[in-house]
Structures are given as C-alpha cells and as structure tokens.
Amino acid sequence: MAIPDPLVHVDRAISELRRGAAVSVIGEKKHLLMVAAEALTPEQLEMLGNYQAGEAALVITGTRANVLGIDKTDRAVSMVSHPQGLTLDVIECLANPLAALMNHPSLDGLVVSDAGDLAQAAITLCKLSRLLPAALIIEGAQAAPDTLVVEASEIQSYISNAAESLMQVSEAQVPLENAENARVVAFRPRDGGIEHLAIVVGDIDPAEPILVRLHSECFTGDLVGSLRCDCGNQLRGAITEMSRVGSGILLYLAQEGRGIGLVNKLRAYQLQDAGFDTVDANLQLGFDADERNYLPAAQMLRKLGVHRIKLLTNNPLKVAALARHDIEVVERISHTYPANKHNEEYLQTKAIKSGHLF
Ligand SMILES: Nc1nc2c(ncn2[C@@H]2O[C@H](COP(=O)(O)OP(=O)(O)OP(=O)(O)O)[C@@H](O)[C@H]2O)c(=O)[nH]1
Ligand SMILES: [Zn+2]
Fold this sequence. Notes:
Elements: H1 6-18, E1 23-27, E2 30-36, H2 42-49, E3 56-61, H3 62-68, E4 77-81, H4 88-95, H5 97-102, E5 111-114, H6 117-128, E6 134-139, E7 148-151, H7 152-156, H8 158-164, E8 167-173, E9 182-188, E10 196-201, E11 210-216, H9 219-223, H10 231-245, E12 248-253, H11 256-259, H12 262-273, H13 278-284, H14 295-303, E13 308-312, H15 316-324, E14 328-333, H16 344-353
Parallel strand pairs: 1-7, 11-12, 11-13, 13-14
Antiparallel strand pairs: 1-2, 2-6, 3-4, 3-6, 4-5, 8-9, 9-10, 10-12
Helix pairs in contact: 8-14, 12-13
Bound molecules: guanosine-5'-triphosphate and zinc ion.
Zinc ion binds at residues 218, 220-221, 229, 231.
C-alpha cells in the first residue's frame, strides 16, 4: 500500500473546508473539529452547538482580534467564545470586516483566550484554502466517521513541502508580442495543488547572472487591465526588458492578492473603498500585510539551473527572501511605472508602509 502523503491530506482538507464541510485536526493526543467561518450555515452552527464534547469557539488571527479591539495582546491567534454561545451574526462580524461594516451586533460578554497549536493550524488551513482566516472549532471533539482527518504538523509544513516537491510538468514555445523567442514552463507540486509558471525569454546562460522578475498573479491587473495597481505594466514591461537585453525569466507565481487569493483581494478593495489603505485592509481581514512565501520561486529557479540573478523589483522583501533561500541577488533593478489617479495612493502606501524602493 502506498504511504499516505501529508501533502495530499492537506489538499483534501482544503477542498472539504472550501465546500463548507467540517475537518478534524489532530495533534499529539489532542483533536479539534473545525468549520471555516465564512462557510458556516445556521444548521451547522446548531449541530456544532449541540456537540457533546465541548463548547464551540471562534478562532481568529491576533491581527483581526487587535483591529476589533477585543484582544490587546500580541497573540498570533485568539480564541473567542461567549458564555451563552456565539450567534451567527456575531461570528460573521468577528470573522468578516465587511459584515461588521453593515451589522453591529453586541460584542459584550465575549471571552478571549489563548489558542493552542491545533487552533493555530486551523487558521493556517483557512489561509491555505484562500478563505477568511477564521474558524469555528470544538476542542476535544472526536471526528465523526465521515470527517476528514489531517495532522496539525502536516498543515504547518504544507507550504514548504509543496514548494520542495515542485516538478516541471510541461513546457512549450509561446511567441509573445514583445518577446518572440519565449517559452512557458509549468511546475506542479506533488499533490496536484496550485501550479506556478516560468516565462523564459531568450536563451539562458546559467554562468551569468540572469535577469529575473517574480510576478505575483493579479487577475485584475494582468488580465483585464485594472488601474487599481501597476501589475499589468510590470508584467508586460518585464518581458519587454528581458527581450531587449536578450534573455530573462519571469516567474508567474500563483500568489494572487499578495497571497490572500482573488476573493479576499476583492474584499480588501471594498475595504479600501471604505477608507482603509492596502496594508490596513489586509489587517482588517485578519491577514498579514503580505502573506507571500518565495520558496516556490527559489525552487523553480534552481530547477531551471539558475542561482545568480539580477532582480527586477522595488520590494526589498523579495530580495531578502530569495537570499534566505540560497538565490544570490547580485543586483536589484528598479521596476517602476507612472502612477494613475486610481493607483497613486496604493503605490504611495507601498513606499511609506511596506518599504518599497523606487
Ligand atoms: N491584498 C492585496 N493585494 C493586492 C492589492 N493590490 C495588488 N495586489 C496584489 O499584489 C501583488 C502584486 O505584487 P507585486 O507585483 O509582486 O508587487 P510588489 O510586492 O509591490 O513588488 P514589486 O512589484 O516587485 O516591486 C499581486 O498578487 C496583486 O494581486 C491590494 O490592494 N491588496
Ligand atoms: Zn495588480
């Protein structure tokens, strides 16, 4: 029999959570049952409320608890309960800042406490599922026979395990408008999870530092020409520049919305329209300002035989992250395009709050 693959367990748990099913997270001698807050139905809440094993509580990130003002500590994850049980209205407002803009149920009497390792893994699983980082949990609850079981340690090591397992699965010549000699190379993790792409322009000489761009997927900017960001210009501009200098590699990373996913990015845009900047909108949703991990990028570069690069970026985090993953950045090349009236504030916030260089 094949050895069960931890990546596959997590991948299945992601599907379960996204379709609103309960998942059981287990650790050493401990277990909890979780449902993603944003997929919670009144029936499920009633079912979980009647669970004999223990009391249902909501886990949210410390960041979300801080902006709500219900937890002033620096806990990574906070557990929230109510002596009379949490109602769906309260859960929605605690989990989702957009619901909190519309409804104002009383938050009196909430009890906030430390969340253990399993609850932290539950939050990580929500993030991997590209859902809001909030889950209704019951600690100590045994899994029902048809509930999927996943280990907390498998969840916590998923990102690095998936990155390390990336394999080149296909490649083809694709002449581009601004770079006729280009090929697209696709990489897939072992569990069949999210694929990342490399666009290789010209012929690469691994003996020389290669011009590289790490481009995080942006449906709105890359595909439909959104003016809220500068992604479309950066994408096409990088390819044009690689063609001009003769060669280069653009990694097209499946990290939409700085790693929070397209649905959450649209939520962040709605919050920005309500007055928050791009960083605070992420924090309101309970995410970090930037949730990306660049191990997949480093791994793809290694698979392409590239170890020394010149990086097209304004983001110092990308340079530092690649260096941590053993890719030598011999030069950072600024990658700036003129602002428009829709993205001016966004670009300013990145310079002021995220340390972007120009
Ligand atoms: N969460 C969030 N993501 C955004 C927002 N605007 C754009 N994005 C995402 O940000 C990512 C773009 O980042 P990058 O082009 O890598 O930009 P960067 O981190 O500023 O770094 P450089 O462009 O390399 O300087 C894409 O995944 C976009 O979808 C926003 O307001 N909120
Ligand atoms: Zn964009």
